[in-house]
Automatic annotation (TrEMBL):
Protein name, UniProt field: Squalene synthase
Recorded metabolic or biological pathway in which this protein acts: Terpene metabolism; lanosterol biosynthesis; lanosterol from farnesyl diphosphate: step 1/3
Record's catalysed reaction(s): 2 (2E,6E)-farnesyl diphosphate = presqualene diphosphate + diphosphate; 2 (2E,6E)-farnesyl diphosphate + NADH + H(+) = squalene + 2 diphosphate + NAD(+); 2 (2E,6E)-farnesyl diphosphate + NADPH + H(+) = squalene + 2 diphosphate + NADP(+); presqualene diphosphate + NADH + H(+) = squalene + diphosphate + NAD(+)
BP term (GO), one: farnesyl diphosphate metabolic process
Organism: Polioptila caerulea
Cofactor field: Mg(2+)
Enzyme superclass (EC): transferase
Annotated Gene Ontology cellular component terms: endoplasmic reticulum membrane
Keywords: Transferase
Length: 427
């Protein structure tokens, strides 16, 4: 009955899940490359499926690096997949607490060199994703079979990321500058690397790969969103990624923010960090406006709209310190189908920053800064596009959705599981 109440509370989710299942996914995953006309690898297999197979090899890739992309030609998809697996292997080394620091640090520094060593593998990892290290000879062989232009990008990003990870192994994130630096190493570099792959493949203009500041902002926006949302999960696992410069103004220890008596100042700290993350949105919109290939646009835009929806759900929300805040599956599917062009994305951004604006407490220490950054986003996200009212369906659609909710909620529960691999990017 809880699921039924959930559907009844948001009947538009039912409509959109059905629309997605009945063919709406085709707008997200076109089958042919709009640039080269090449068919997708595997007889039309979309990259979302190829990516899911990659992540099964990696046994549960981090939410922070998931996305959805229709495959734009076998070689290009393969390059992105290998890029993913290499970084998954690098992440596994960083995450494995059983590896002594005197072993882990040089391993991270030298990891990129193992891409050119056919027999290198690591069999002593205790991490759940250890298979990518145990099977690394297969990954590195596939890497060496890529075109040199792809190899150079992947190797360079792997090297920079490994050095950055090693830097933060023995120090915490203190200043906001260091927060940006950490997010650059673990996510900004991913955005830069993908952008360079898009340009190298000629799917996008060279400026997309050359403008590393914008590509970096794409990664920082996603990474900061996840760090903000995952406060409690990270605390329970002994990890701290919120910058001391911010949280120390509200508590003596970061863990103190989870105490019930500190909930008011905890939410103020949360709002300040969300305001910080929102400063990346103008860069995100500029980056997306440059993209020409539909598959690449979908790949890049979907995680960004998921992020803004997540920040809107987290803003001024005490639940961040008590449990998990996630956007609904139906909401995520709607965003996936809608975010297929820049005007639609602008409308989505406008909608969610307006939602944040309506929740700004007048007594919040960051209220003025939040209002200012929202004003800058408004200037770039002018309302009036068809997407601005995308949630206002006709009464007949909503009536049908309500009836379906009452009669078919068990079926829809199964349906939502069937779409799980498409929705993971928003979780």
């Amino acid at each position: 009955m809880e699921l039924l109440r959930k559907w009844l509370g948001h009947p538009e989710d039912i409509y959109n899940l059905l629309r997605f299942k009945m063919g709406g996914y085709r707008a997200v995953m076109p089958r042919m490359d709009t640039v080269s006309g090449e068919g997708c690898a595997g007889g039309g297999m979309p990259f979302a499926v190829a990516g899911a197979r990659c992540s099964r090899w990696g046994a549960g890739h981090e939410r922070r690096r998931r996305g959805t992309l229709s495959c734009p030609g076998a070689d290009r998809v393969h390059a992105v997949c290998i890029f993913y697996l290499v970084l998954r292997a690098l992440d596994t080394v960083e995450d494995d607490m059983s590896i002594p620091l005197d072993v882990k640090v040089p391993m991270l520094h030298e990891f990129h060199s193992h891409l050119y060593q056919p027999d290198w593998k690591y069999t002593e990892s205790k991490e759940k994703d250890r298979q990518v290290l145990e099977d690394f000879p297969t990954i590195s062989m596939e890497f060496r079979n890529l075109s040199k232009v792809y190899q150079d990008v992947i190797s360079d990003i792997c090297h920079k990321m490994g050095v950055g990870m090693a830097e933060f192994l023995e120090k915490k994130v203190d200043s906001q500058h260091e927060w940006d630096k950490y997010c650059h190493y673990v996510a900004g570099l991913v955005g830069i690397g993908l952008s360079q792959l898009f340009s190298a493949s000629e799917l996008e203009d060279s400026i997309v790969g050359q403008d590393t500041d914008l590509a970096n902002s794409m990664g920082l926006f996603l990474q900061k969103t996840n760090i903000i949302r995952d406060y409690l999960e990270d605390q329970l696992e002994g990890r701290e990624f919120w910058p001391r410069e911010v949280w120390s103004r509200y508590a003596q220890k970061l863990s103190d923010l989870a105490k019930p008596e500190n909930i008011d100042v905890a939410v103020q700290c949360l709002n300040e960090l969300i305001t910080n993350a929102l400063h990346h949105v103008p860069d995100v919109l500029t980056y997306l406006s440059r993209l020409k290939n539909q598959s690449v646009f979908n790949f890049c835009a979907i995680p960004q709209v998921m992020a803004i929806a997540t920040l809107a759900a987290c803003y001024n929300n005490q639940q961040v310190f008590r449990g998990v805040v996630k956007i609904r599956k139906g909401q995520a599917v709607t965003l996936m189908m809608d975010a297929t062009n820049i005007q639609a994305v602008k409308a989505i951004m406008y909608q969610y920053v307006e939602e944040i604006y309506q929740k700004i407490p007048s007594t919040d220490p960051s209220s003025n800064k939040t209002q200012q950054v929202i004003a800058s986003i408004r200037a770039l996200s002018l309302p009036g596009s068809p997407m601005a009212s995308r949630h206002h369906y006709s009464p007949i659609y909503l009536s049908c959705a309500m009836l379906l909710a009452a009669l078919s909620w068990q079926y829809l529960s199964t349906l939502s599981k069937a779409t799980e691999e498409y929705v993971q990017a928003g979780e």
